[in-house]
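tool_log.txt
---
The assistant was asked to compare two proteins side by side. It first ran the structure predictor on the initial sequence, then on the second. Raw inputs and outputs are pasted verbatim so the downstream comparison step can read them without reformatting.
(1)
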Amino acid sequence: MPNFPPVTSLIPHRSPMLLVDKVISVEEKIGRAHAVVSAEHLFLRADGTLAPETCAELVAQGFGVCEACRRLSKGLTIEGGGYLANIRDLVCLAPARKGDELIIRTEKIDECFDTYIVQGEILRGEEKLAQCTVYIFMWQGDTPPQSL
């Protein structure tokens, strides 16, 4: 198994907004990241389940850490930033619960200008808990480009 950099060196998120804890695998378009639903999880509800919309942020962060690893492996910079710009087709099949270990599987489907279209799913073992498509705007350098 490859030794990937710590996620804190790959994306700007920090606790409590940092939801992923490690990269598992990175291929040309597909990546897998890991997350644990801790008792202190930012989106943990009183009933011990994650809010369903958390899926989109997990997918975005999972993609972000895997894309950073892809770029590093090609000798490219990871300076810059990005943000979750849109969410489509969010389907929650079962709730994630406190204590669950989650696998976030992402696949880069397309890119247009500086926006990546990413399909993702959240798994607990072999069980698919949720899926969605996210649009992630990314830029290189210190600041985002000015809008036209």
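(2)
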Amino acid sequence: MSSKYDSLARVLAQKDQDMIRMTFEEVEDAIRGKLPPAALEHRAWWANSTSHSHARLGWMKAGYHTSEVDLDKQELVFVRSVEPLFERIASSKEHLSRPRLFQSRIEPGRERVEDLVRMAGGPGNLREIVHAIQEYIDGDILETELGRRLRKLWPRNY
């Protein structure tokens, strides 16, 4: 059975971006219908839970999770989930050109992903690192601010 949130999954997958800021209106355009009142009133509706069919068949199906849900501004950010992103990296040959530091500490496959997440200080910390890098790429922060944040976030034992 098809869900109206399948179309949201297709829209997100077509964008192929690590972070996608959308208004609730844009989400409604993607699902070709109105969001339920709960989506406009309760942040919990946007939870990244497989027990919620709209999450499972929508953004999670496309490999994203929700972040920065702002009910007042009626907008949110979809962030590519760490696991699918690193599975894509692990399956590419791109890692062969990475600095020796990372090659020596990260094993191929799932262990490589888990090691990278561990090296970054856990999935929450890795998300903050990626967010800071994205802000730099978008021109929202300067290189000096990026460096300050990365020094603060990256664990000292690496």
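---
observation on (2): The chain has two domains: 6-80, 82-153. The beta strands are 19-23, 64-70, 75-80.
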